[in-house]
Structure formats: structure tokens, C-alpha cells
From TrEMBL:
It comes from the Bacteria. It is found in: Membrane. It holds the Pfam family OPT. InterPro entries: OPT, YSL-like. The chain crosses the membrane at residues 23-42, 48-66, 78-99, 111-130, 228-251, 353-372, 384-409, 415-435, 480-500, 544-565, 571-591, 612-636, 656-677. It comes from Chitinophaga defluvii. Keywords: Membrane, Transmembrane, Transmembrane helix, Transport. This is OPT/YSL family transporter. It is a multi-pass membrane protein.
């Protein structure tokens, strides 16, 4: 029972916990993993939990160089994890400003607005978790395992093993950095080897197989495992080797170009360029697969993702109802307990921030949203309604998010479904009060964006509070650390988003002139989807015939017993993204099969802390961070010129030929897979 639970550090023990060094180290980790998450989420529409790697690294660095205690290490992990969750919420929604009707939302895709919404969403998620901690973390300690939080608590308790753990993670990080230098600076390794059949091919026109052979994709694939990775790539196979060749056979080039003009991907039929590189003289595309993808397949994929997210939400409705009832009941029970506790001194491990902080904080958020000029809305009344909707939806979905991650973990949290439901609910409220048209699309996206950030942060916050409960942390110190982590990481998250959105010289040469986000380089699938929904409901300008094809793709997958959201994301993304992820998942499958044949059984915790998982985590962190650094360097003219001089691709292409250059890159990727396999096999 939870009443008999004894934390690792007893309440009566006084130990260093909320110190300057623990907060600073946590902020550094939050910045690093926040920036890496932005990069990964924009490219692949996926994230991986940062809590466990931060805990592992915190133990190693903290114990060796800073003489930190277990409670200080917990604060480091708590502060740092805020960056990853907020980054995910930002990237999954706010790029949608770029894709609203007539591009009117692009004015709000600026650093100050992104920073403001990131901070507000992060603060909202933490605020709403303050009264829920006792209800969900303490009172339901035996029924809500919070798997990542429990694993982090076990890692912190096993601090004496931290060096061994971290050695493997740092090995992966270093390997990924070296690989990234060879790939993204020297260009010894091709970034995306590809093969496409000709448009004039009678049997299989414009079918493309490609792969962005990066460390982060292989690492993500290994972490999510063969099943999810297989479902992801299945969606890509359908789109790029099924739908695109079919449409290439049936739809004339000029019709495709007309559709691209309608969607804003091509200026007009007399202007060359755009997605697929349209030639107005020959009336053909240089790359039909990309043209068809942007003209039709992305809308089909958006419909599939929307339906998949909504189906996931519907399937969790019984959990949502019981969650809300249970949480309200627990809160009621807590009140009487708090009255009794007021007559005695509250133990250190039970001290939360005051409920007044929640009330005044929520009121302050509403007022700030009403009066800050950088947020969309043409009157204080409009903005007050938006702020009120944010707090109401936030209170509900933070509760839902916390209980769901308590049962099935943060990786399975249906954030997309909650955000879709919030966005649709907000749009329906707007329609009910007569707010229709493109002017209200950015306001709807603000509500959806803040709820997405809040729900994502609430899931991570819950895991952190669980870790703290296990090790014997002081809750109010964790809650303050979460506020600090949310604010500091938001500063860098906004900068990273804006840097990555700036097209590099290579992107400009390939027709990406205004925004890199939304292009083939950074597809931002969830952000595009949110904009698509807001436009469709408020402005009635959606190509529903394509969206409905995607809806029924997801329904078909569910009828086949397959989780449709993973398949839908795969159908939306380029195959070049999902194929290398599948390779990582396949390596994990080989490892699991080997263990099964050798009758080796491991617990979920042992898997999380296994050498394969830690090396893969290093690949993800190293590859993503290197990608961010190199993208930032490429954004400055001086360093971009230096990087261009270091580019060995032309020389290698001349010596090996195009096909030989691609084979060389594929060989490097295969070598990385072999290293991952060998590392995972070590006991």
C-alpha cells in the first residue's frame, strides 16, 4: 500500500537538494535535449523520452565532478526533462501558423510569440499538476506505475552504477558526432541515398526508395522497437510505392501543377520551380514523386493522422472518464487530509506549492493572454475567451495526460488526439459565437498549441514527480525546478525553431526559399495537420476528398488490429524518414530474437538501461544535437562559406559516380548498424 511506502531518503533526513549547481546543470540538459527534440520532431514527427538519459548523465557528471547528492541529481533530471516535453508540444503545433489560409498566420510564427506560448504552455502543465500530485502520484502509488518515472527513480538509487551506464551512452553520442561530421560537414556520407524509377516507366512510374541515413533515425528505430517501426515504414511504403506510382500513371503533369498552385507550393503554371521542380516549357516535373506527394499524398496523410489521433482518443475515453472522476474524488479526499495536516508540521516529502499558486497562476495566464499584443486576437474580449478555453481544456487534459502516462508511459501518450479534440472543440465554440473565417484560425491554433504543450509537459512532470516520490524528494522544490526548466528551455526552443526554419544555401538551390519548415527537409507533420484542421473547420476550404481517403486508411488499419496513428504518421512522412527508422527497429528485433533463443529474460527496467538502449539514446542525442549545431552554423554566411569549402561530395561523385557515392554512404550506415548490434549484444 502507498501508506506503507518508504522513500529512499526518509523525510526527516536533511540533504542538499535545491542548489544552484543542480538547477544550472538541469537547465543545460534541458537546453541540449530541447534543441535535439525540436530537430527530431520537425524531421520525423517523433520524440523519445529524455528523462532516463538525463538521469544517467546527471549521476555520472554530478558524482564525478560536482559531488552532487541523489536529491540534487533528481533536481537536475527534473529541470532538464522539461525541455524535451515542451519542445515536442511546440513543434507538434506552432509550425501550423505557417500553413494557415493565405499565409496570414505566418506573422505569428516569430520568436517572441513562440517563446510566449512555449512558456505559458509549460507553466500551465506544471501548475495543473500541483493539486494532482497527491491524488495520482501518492494515493495511487500502487495502481499507477509511471514506468519512466519509476525507471528514473531506480537509476538514481543505483547511482553507484552510473559510470557504467553513462559510458555506453557517451560512446553512442561520440559515435553519432563523428558520423555527423563525416555526413553533414565533409559529406563523405551521402545524406539521403535514393533511387527513383522514370516517369515514362510503363509498369512502375516515379516510385522512389530513399533513406536519410542518420544516427538519430537508427537510434529512434531501436528505441521504439520493430513493431512500431514496421508499422511506420508500412505507411511510407503505401504512399511512395503504392499511391504515388498510381497517381503518376493516372494524373497528367499539368493537373498536378494546378493542384500545387492551389495549395501554394507553386506560384503559377508559367513559373518554374516549386515542389518537384516544374518546367513550364516541357510541362513536366523533374521529380514527379515529390510533386505528387505535396499535391495529394500529404493531404491523404493528414486525414489519416487526424483520424488516427481521434481514434486513439476515443479508445481512451473510458480511461479519461474514470481519470477525471477519480482525480476529483481524490482531490476531495485530500482537502480533509490537509485540514488534519494543518495542525501538525507537514513532512518534507509532502510539501507542495500552495493551491493559491495554481489559482493566481491560472488567472495571471488568462490576463496575460488577453493583454499581450504578440498573441492573435483583435480585441481583449476575444483573447479572454481564448485564455479561458486554454485553462478549461488544460485542467481537463493535464489530468487525462497524467493518468494515461501513469498507466502506459509517456511514449504512448495520445497527445495528438487530445490536441485534435481541443482544436475541434475550440473551432466549434468559435462557430457557435459566430467567429468563422481565416481571421480566427490563428486564435484556434493558440488554444490547440498551448494544450498540446501543457499535456506533453504534464506527462513528463508526472514521471518526474514519481521519481521524486521514490527517492524522497521535496515536491515543492521539484515544482519550482519544473517552472525554471520550462522557462529556460523555452528560450532556446524558440531560437532553434527559427534557425531551422531559415533555408540554407542548399535548400534555396533546391527551391526552398522562404520556410524550411514544411518542406521535405523538415516536414513537421503534426503542425501541418493542425493548420489543415483549423482551415477546414473555420474557412471551409479543405480538399475533403483526399482527407477522407486518409480517414478511411486509418479506419482500415484499426479494423485490421493495427494501431492506426503510427501507420498514419508513416503515410504522411517521406519514406526517406521511416526507412532508416525501420532499420533501427529491425536491429532491435534481431537482438530480441537472439535473447529469446538463448532463453535470456529481462525486465522492462533492464531493457531501458541495457547497453543497446543507452547506445541508441546516444545516437539520437548526438545526431540530433550535431544536426542542430550544423544547421545553425549553416545559417550564417561566413561559416556557411567555410562549410562549403569542406564539402567533399563533388570530388567523391566524380571519382565514384552517383551510384558509387550512394553505396559508400549506405556502407557507413550499415557499419553503424553493426556497431549498434555488437554493443547491444554485450552483457
Amino acid at each position: 500500500m502507498a501508506e506503507n511506502f518508504k522513500p529512499f531518503v526518509p523525510p526527516e533526513v536533511s540533504m542538499k537538494e535545491f542548489t544552484l549547481k543542480s538547477i544550472l546543470l538541469g537547465c543545460i540538459f534541458g537546453i541540449i535535449f530541447g534543441a535535439a527534440t525540436v530537430y527530431l520532431a520537425l524531421k520525423a514527427g517523433l520524440t523519445v523520452s529524455a528523462s532516463i538519459p538525463i538521469a544517467v548523465i546527471a549521476i555520472t557528471l554530478g558524482r564525478k565532478f560536482f559531488k552532487t547528492t541523489i536529491l540534487e541529481n533528481n533536481i537536475i533530471q527534473t529541470t532538464g526533462s522539461a525541455g524535451e516535453s515542451i519542445a515536442a508540444g511546440v513543434v507538434f503545433t506552432l509550425p501550423g501558423f505557417l500553413f494557415l489560409t493565405d499565409g496570414d498566420g505566418a506573422q505569428f510564427f516569430n520568436y517572441i510569440t513562440i517563446l510566449t506560448l512555449a512558456i505559458f504552455g509549460g507553466v500551465l502543465g506544471t501548475l495543473m499538476m500541483i493539486p494532482l500530485r497527491k491524488a495520482l502520484i501518492v494515493n495511487e502509488h500502487d495502481t499507477l506505475p509511471y514506468p519512466e518515472g519509476t525507471a528514473c527513480g531506480d537509476v538514481l538509487k543505483a547511482g553507484e552504477k552510473g559510470g557504467d551506464f553513462a559510458k555506453t551512452a557517451f560512446y553512442g553520442l561520440g559515435f553519432a558526432f563523428a558520423y555527423a561530421i563525416l555526413q553533414k560537414i565533409l559529406h563523405v556520407i551521402a545524406e539521403a541515398p535514393a533511387h527513383m524509377t522514370q516517369q515514362v516507366n510503363k509498369f512502375f512510374p516515379s516510385a522512389k526508395v530513399s533513406g536519410e541515413i542518420t544516427p538519430e533515425y537508427m537510434g529512434v528505430g531501436y528505441i521504439i522497437g520493430p513493431k512500431i517501426a514496421g508499422v511506420l515504414v508500412a505507411g511510407g511504403v503505401l504512399s511512395w510505392l503504392g499511391l504515388i506510382p498510381l497517381l503518376a500513371t493516372l494524373v497528367p503533369g499539368e493537373t498536378i501543377a494546378t493542384q500545387l498552385v492551389k495549395l501554394g507550393y507553386l506560384a503559377d503554371l508559367s513559373t518554374p520551380g516549386g515542389q518537384g521542380r516544374w518546367d513550364p516549357v516541357t510541362r513536366t516535373f523533374a521529380d514527379y514523386s515529390v510533386a505528387i506527394y505535396y499535391a495529394y499524398v500529404r493531404q491523404i496523410g493528414a486525414g489519416a493522422v487526424a483520424a488516427g489521433g481521434f481514434i486513439t482518443l476515443i479508445k481512451t475515453i473510458p480511461t479519461i472518464i474514470s481519470t477525471f472522476k477519480g482525480s476529483l474524488g481524490s482531490l476531495g479526499g485530500n482537502k480533509s487530509g490537509e485540514k488534519q495536516a494543518s495542525s501538525r508540521e507537514v513532512p518534507r516529502t509532502e510539501r507542495d506549492l500552495s493551491i493559491k499558486v495554481v489559482g493566481f497562476g491560472s488567472l495571471a495566464l488568462i490576463l496575460l493572454m488577453a493583454f499581450l499584443p504578440q498573441l492573435p486576437g483583435d480585441s481583449i474580449g476575444n483573447k479572454l475567451l481564448v485564455g479561458l478555453l486554454v485553462v478549461i481544456f488544460g485542467a481537463f487534459f493535464v489530468t487525462v495526460s497524467s493518468r494515461i502516462v501513469g498507466l502506459i508511459g509517456s511514449s504512448n501518450n495520445p497527445i495528438s488526439g487530445m490536441t485534435i479534440a481541443t482544436l475541434m472543440g475550440t473551432c466549434l465554440v468559435f462557430i457557435a459565437v459566430g467567429w468563422t473565417g481565416k481571421v480566427y484560425e490563428p486564435m484556434a491554433l493558440v488554444v490547440g498549441g498551448m494544450i498540446c504543450i501543457a499535456a506533453a509537459n504534464a506527462g513528463a512532470t508526472s514521471q518526474d514527480l514519481k521519481s521524486g516520490y521514490i527517492v524522497g524528494a521535496t515536491p515543492k522544490f521539484q515544482q519550482i525546478a519544473l517552472f525554471i526548466g520550462a522557462i529556460v528551455s523555452s528560450i532556446v526552443i524558440g531560437l532553434t525553431v527559427k534557425f531551422l526554419d531559415k533555408p540554407t544555401a542548399v535548400m534555396i538551390a533546391n527551391g526552398v526559399t522562404e520556410h524550411a519548415i514544411g518542406s521535405v527537409y523538415y516536414p513537421a507533420p503534426q503542425g501541418t495537420l493542425m493548420a489543415t484542421l483549423a482551415k477546414g473547420i473555420l474557412s471551409f476550404n479543405l480538399d475533403w476528398q483526399f482527407v477522407l481517403v486518409g480517414v478511411f486508411l486509418s479506419i482500415t488499419m484499426e479494423l485490421c488490429g493495427i494501431k492506426s496513428l503510427s501507420f498514419a504518421v508513416g503515410a504522411y512522412l517521406p519514406l526517406s524518414t521511416t526507412l532508416p527508422i525501420f532499420v533501427g527497429g529491425a536491429i532491435r528485433g534481431l537482438i530480441d530474437n537472439k535473447k529469446k533463443k538463448e532463453n535470456i529474460t529481462t525486465t522492462a527496467e533492464e531493457d531501458e538501461l541495457g547497453k543497446g538502449n543507452l547506445f541508441a539514446t546516444g545516437l539520437v542525442a548526438g545526431g540530433a544535437v550535431a544536426g542542430v549545431i550544423i544547421a545553425i552554423l549553416a545559417g550564417f554566411d561566413g561559416t556557411a562559406a567555410i562549410l562549403a569549402k569542406l564539402n567533399m561530395e563533388p570530388a567523391l561523385n566524380g571519382a565514384l559516380g552517383h551510384g558509387g557515392y550512394y553505396l559508400l554512404g549506405t556502407a557507413f550506415f550499415a557499419f553503424m548498424g553493426w556497431v549498434l548490434y555488437r554493443t547491444a549484444r554485450k552483457v
